[in-house]
Design a protein that fits this description.
Length: 317
């Protein structure tokens, strides 16, 4: 069945985010003869439309008032784009913006939203799948109303290919807002963002001390600073061993790397909710009964103080 799909894109530095490009890739497969359009708002939106591979039409506004995502300003123009595109499916990233906009948009359109999806397919109607019970199960939903709204985890789709949008329509400037953003504090990161890294090496409370994270960082650096990022469990962050910006889990970041290396992490459900989407998990833990081994493709039962240095030495060869 053909679908008209609208992507609510996000911009960083005037360019579409990687997740936005992935949403376009997913939309290409789901449209099945329908149309794929994108909404881009904020500084550089018009130029970014040319980079929106897979979209046939872009609804844009370069007004800097959209640089800060405020639901009361974004939702009216997203609705205008829905009306003009005839979209029966609206996709956005499972980001802070998506979590704020998705449910509100669905409520305004008297429809429904599927959050944190890792798979969307048309099987006798659109089916939306997302991890449940800390990643121990997959829940599948269908939405009978239109437009269906869904937020999608990063790396659930391959990025789109092809030319950007050639048909560009201008959206109005933002209206007034009752919200005043007084300050932005950028998270300090010395390397790749853990949400973008193809490999994530995470440490847990089982490391025993803050100094032990130096070994975790060394493992990531040996793999390559352009490929690997360092994460941490909530327990390690709560102890002050690593910054909250690097926390993986239900109350931290959700990561979907090609490879997730869990060092001295037991595998509590709230942590697995943040990493169960990884293509492969390698677990290093001295407790052979640790829950993490139930999710791992490869497991090493042993003391990290022995295993990790040996792994580093092998990688250096």
């Amino acid at each position: 069945m053909a679908h008209n799909i609208l992507i609510v894109g996000e911009l960083v530095g005037g360019a579409p985010t990687s997740t936005t490009l992935e949403l376009l890739g997913g939309a290409q497969g789901l449209a099945a003869g329908g149309t794929v359009a994108i909404t881009l708002l904020g500084t550089g939106a018009s130029a970014a439309a040319a980079k929106a591979a897979g979209a046939s039409k872009a609804f844009v506004s370069d007004d800097a008032g959209y640089d800060s995502i405020k639901a009361e300003q974004w939702l009216p123009v997203i609705e205008a784009a829905i009306d003009q595109s005839g979209a029966d499916l609206v996709l956005m990233a499972q980001s802070s913006a998506g979590r704020e906009l998705g449910p509100r948009l669905a409520a305004r359109r008297k429809s429904a939203v599927a959050m944190d999806c890792v798979k969307i397919e048309d099987a006798g109607g659109l089916k939306f799948s997302r991890p449940a019970y800390g990643g121990n199960a997959i829940a599948t939903y269908s939405i009978a109303t239109s437009p269906a709204v869904a937020t999608v985890r990063a790396k659930s789709f391959e990025p789109a290919s092809g030319a950007g949008a050639s048909d560009v329509a201008q959206l109005p400037a933002p209206g007034g807002s009752r919200t005043n953003i007084t300050n932005f504090e950028k998270a300090v990161s010395s390397g790749l963002l853990i949400t973008d890294a193809p490999i994530v090496v995470s440490g847990g409370r089982g490391l025993g001390a803050i100094e032990a994270f130096k070994t975790v960082e060394e493992l990531a650096a040996t793999i390559g600073s352009d490929r690997a990022a360092v994460g941490a469990s909530r327990a390690a962050v709560d102890l002050g061993w690593y910054p909250p910006s690097q926390q993986v889990g239900l109350t931290g970041k959700v990561v979907t790397p090609d490879l997730y290396i869990a060092v001295a992490i037991s595998g509590a459900s709230q942590h697995m909710a943040g990493c169960s989407g990884a293509k492969a998990i390698v677990a290093i833990n001295r407790d052979k009964e640790a829950n993490i081994f139930g999710f791992a493709k490869y497991g090493i039962v042993g003391d990290w103080k022995t295993v990790v240095p040996a792994l580093i030495e092998e990688l250096k060869k």
